[in-house]
Specification:
The complex is a heterodimer of chains A (328) and B (358).
Chain A (H helix, E strand, L loop, with lengths): L2 H34 L6 H17 L5 H8 L12 H22 L9 H23 L16 H11 L7 H23 L1 H11 L1 H6 L4 H27 L8 H12 L4 H21 L1 H4 L7 H12 L14
Helix pairs in contact in A: 1-7, 1-8, 1-10, 1-11, 1-12, 2-4, 2-5, 2-10, 4-10, 7-8, 7-10, 8-10, 11-12, 11-14
Chain B lengths: L12 H4 L6 H17 L6 H27 L7 H18 L5 H20 L7 H21 L12 E2 L4 E2 L2 E2 L7 H23 L2 H11 L1 H6 L4 H28 L1 E2 L1 H4 L2 H14 L4 H25 L4 H22 L3 H15 L5
Antiparallel strand pairs in B: 1-4, 2-3
Helix pairs in contact in B: 3-7, 3-10, 3-12, 3-13, 4-5, 4-6, 4-10, 5-10, 7-10, 8-10, 12-13, 13-14, 13-15
GO cellular component, one term (chain B): plasma membrane
Organism (chain B): Ruegeria profundi
Membrane topology (chain B): Multi-pass membrane protein
């Protein structure tokens, strides 16, 4: 087998893994968009916020330590204990549920019935707010996150591919774990929305707010639940990305990467988010591999957007999105 | 009482068609112009110019440009930073290629080049609408920044990858480079802002502006009554990018002097200008000014209060700023979705009756 082809295969495999991570973030977007028609720009910052809170709780950091120290002239930073990972994840989840309640209570409730674009901009404001709060609470330095997920090269794949192709593929263990978790998450979400009472209520709200209200579904509760689920997805994405590349500001930028994924897959489709993520992941890695060296590299910065743009010109609702019907 | 239309008689069509048909507005406009051109240049110092006035003037131009696209034509764009970069790099290439030509011409040409690029990236808007378009403009943002970063021709093969504004003058007065005096740069930007604002004001109350607003309010209905969406959308992209390009050119050449594209014209800049027009008021020229003034002043005030008075570390102040800006945006959207411009309209309404409210 020619060497280039083997390299390309490795690139495709890695692209698939990266795509899964994009899809994880995109999932959070789709959930909120389906249930409330809000395009939640803050999803990426929620992932950052969740990851920072997790690290903070695990290390026993004092929240708002810098602010307290600056105001009162004290020098406190740590409580002096370490919280086990599982408990910390549960606590973080509680924080995310509280956040969902706060968002619903203080922001979205007041904006019911506004135009979608106003809601979108409100979530941009929310993103700034959350980012500032996260930095104030836990400090803005880069943190490492380790909840005990396996990391590093997967030796068995390396060995197996070496035996077949004479060249060992480099596949990160973390990526494999991420793929498995993403698959479980999607399966769980689908099961939740198909078979549970709350899941059905969620789909009903997504279909028609007023009809859902008239059969006795509490919109308030459903929206808090949806934001909580999105918070949970953000937490999972935050753990994955945080373990991979450290918890830092750039984590919130993966939200931007998830946007072309959404456009490809369609805003309203959960399978679309997965497929879109895989296409973008593989596409940008392959493009960088094949064309990148010719034009100076770093094409990953824009390839996804341009691909989505070209794609949209031909199919404005994305791959799996509901057909856009316009009436006067 | 103070603000009234009654008794303000127009006796000719020219009177009726002037930019500010109401006397109070007109006088206010003359007073603002007189202060801006006649008084401020004489009380100018470097701090005032660099911290407040220059960024305000330049961002106001960008905000007017974006407001035309988002506020008047309803096409949400997140590519402002990229288009400002086009203006800056076009200006740089022109300045270095034709050193003898006046800066006025360079800046206007830079705006024109940006307009062409803007139309190119505006073409998909004919097929893509709403959020999808907003995300599609991100393609412009990331692609353009990458392009200026990676293609050495744009930064004249300089080793650092930065662009530096060489010293250029207008009628013998140095405008760019370290030797430019504060009042000269201020006046240079002010002239551009004034011209841009007058053009925008008159465009938006004429046929062009009305077709934009028709497209914004409901594009299919507008199409049915005979508005050409191709023409309306592309002119909006062109005019908007023209202004944004001018502001980018000024931002680079007059204000900063040296630019590293990823840092200065990144996605943050797109959001900043978008926030300006949300806080100021979508679909209002005055709102563009108010929003730009507000978001330029806020960090300066926060820095003075937080870092200088309270003695907090600068990083805390920077984080607090994020929190405050975010909260303000949400508050504005909830309490006053039409922004500062709406407050001004309400104030005028009150002034009209005051002090006899009935």
């Amino acid at each position: 087998m020619p060497e280039q082809l083997v390299f390309a295969m490795e690139v495709i495999l890695n692209g698939l893994m990266a795509g899964v991570l994009y899809a994880l973030v995109a999932l959070g977007f789709v959930l909120i968009y389906k249930a409330s028609g809000i395009f939640n720009y803050a999803q990426g910052v929620m992932a950052l916020f969740a990851a920072m809170t997790l690290v903070g709780i695990m290390n026993g950091q004092v929240p708002f330590a810098h602010l307290i120290n600056a105001t009162f002239g004290t020098h406190i930073h740590y409580f002096g204990w370490n919280v086990p990972a599982l408990l910390a994840i549960l606590l973080t989840m509680a924080v995310m549920v509280f956040l969902a309640w706060a968002v619903q209570r203080f922001v979205m409730r007041h904006l019911v019935g506004q135009e979608p674009i106003i809601l979108f901009m409100a979530t941009i404001g929310l993103a700034y707010f959350l980012e500032g709060v996260a930095d104030l609470m836990w400090g803005s330095e880069i943190k490492t996150l380790d909840v005990g997920l396996p990391q590093g090269i997967n030796l068995s794949i390396d060995e197996a591919t070496f035996n077949i192709f004479g060249y060992g593929f480099f596949i990160d263990n973390l990526d494999i774990v991420a793929t498995v978790i993403a698959a479980l998450l999607v399966a769980g979400l689908v099961a939740f929305s198909q078979y549970t009472k709350q899941g059905r209520a969620m789909r009903a709200v997504a279909d028609d707010h007023q009809a859902a209200l008239s059969v006795g579904i509490s919109l308030n509760f459903i929206w808090i639940m949806v934001w909580s689920v999105a918070g949970f997805v953000a937490l999972v994405a935050g753990i994955m990305w945080g373990t991979k590349s450290g918890v830092q500001f750039s984590l919130s930028l993966i939200a931007l990467k998830a946007l072309p994924v959404l456009m490809l897959g369609g805003f309203t489709s959960i399978p679309g988010a997965i497929v879109g993520g895989l296409i973008i992941g593989v596409g940008e890695k392959l493009f960088e591999f094949a064309v990148g060296p010719l034009v100076g590299g770093a094409t990953e910065n824009w390839f996804a957007y341009v691909l989505a743009l070209i794609f949209l010109v031909f199919r404005p609702q994305g791959l799996f999105g509901e057909k856009i019907i316009e009436r006067v | 009482m103070f603000y009234r239309e009654a008794g303000d008689f127009k006796t000719s069509y020219i009177d009726d068609n002037q930019t500010f048909p109401i006397k109070f507005d007109r006088y206010r406009y003359y007073v603002v112009l007189a202060v801006a051109f006649g008084i401020i240049p004489f009380v100018m110092n470097d701090y005032l110019a660099n911290a407040l006035l220059l960024p305000f003037l330049i961002y106001a131009i960008a905000a007017i440009g974006l407001n035309i696209l988002v506020g008047y034509c309803g096409q949400v764009s997140l590519g402002t930073g990229g288009f400002m970069a086009v203006g800056a790099y076009a200006c740089y290439k022109l300045m270095t290629a034709f050193p003898d030509v006046s800066m006025f011409i360079h800046v206007i040409l830079a705006g024109g080049i940006t307009a062409i690029v803007g139309v190119l990236f505006g073409l998909p808007s004919l097929r893509i609408k709403g959020f999808y378009l907003a995300v599609a403009t991100l393609a412009a943002q990331f692609f353009l920044v990458w392009l200026f970063n990676r293609v050495p021709w744009f930064y004249n093969y300089s080793a650092s990858g930065q662009i530096n504004a060489p010293e250029r003058d207008v009628f013998g007065i140095v405008i760019t480079g370290p030797n430019a005096s504060a009042w000269a740069t201020y006046l240079f930007c002010l002239i551009f802002l004034t011209i841009c604002a007058i053009i925008a004001r008159n465009l938006t109350r004429g046929t062009t502006g009305r077709t934009w607003m028709a497209i914004r309010d409901m594009d299919i209905a507008a199409e049915i009554i005979g508005v050409n969406p191709l023409k309306a959308k592309l002119t909006a992209f062109a005019v908007s990018s023209f202004f944004v390009g001018i502001s980018g050119a000024l931002f680079f050449s007059v204000y900063l002097g040296a630019v590293e594209v990823g840092e200065v014209f990144g996605i943050q800049k797109s959001f900043l200008v978008l926030f300006m027009i949300i806080i100021g008021g979508l679909g209002s020229i005055f709102g563009s000014f108010a929003g730009a003034a507000f978001l330029v002043t806020l960090p300066v005030v926060l820095k003075v209060v937080g870092a200088d008075w309270l003695g907090w570390p600068t990083d805390i102040v920077a984080h607090l700023q994020l929190v405050i800006v975010g909260a303000l945006i949400i508050m504005f959207l909830i309490l006053e979705p039409h922004g500062l411009a709406q407050l001004w309209r309400l104030a005028k309404e009150k002034l009209r009756l005051w002090p006899f409210p009935h």
